[in-house]
Design brief:
With 99 residues, this protein is an alpha+beta fold. 31% of the residues lie in helices and 28% in strands. The longest helix has 16 residues, at 25-40.
Length: 99
């Protein structure tokens, strides 16, 4: 199985990196690298994340990484990373719009 990041997910990850870089560029790079590495494990273990609590009857799952939630769905041949956002928030509806 292959892990594929949507454009939306990459843009949100880049925004997180930019925000953290304002205070600590090294920490920002470290965080982004860790998140990407964590999602790579989904290639072998796609169901390692929990079902998304906000929409439990959907095919959406998530990984928690520190203060961030990484939302994904399992497809036939890949795992699609949909978005990344702060863990204290509920999933906004607009984050479910993917190209």
């Amino acid at each position: 199985m292959k892990v594929v990041w949507t454009e939306q997910a990459f843009l949100r990850l880049a925004a997180i990196e930019d925000f953290i870089s304002g205070d600590n560029p090294q920490a920002a790079v470290k965080l982004v690298t860790r998140m990407i590495e964590k999602t790579e494990a989904l290639a072998k273990f796609p169901q390692m994340g929990r079902q998304l609590p906000e929409v439990p009857d959907s095919d959406l799952r998530e990984l928690i990484d520190g203060n961030y939630r990484i939302v994904y769905r399992i497809k036939k041949k890949n795992v699609e990373i949909i978005t990344v956002f702060e863990a204290h928030r509920l999933l906004p509806d607009e984050y479910l719009v993917c190209e």
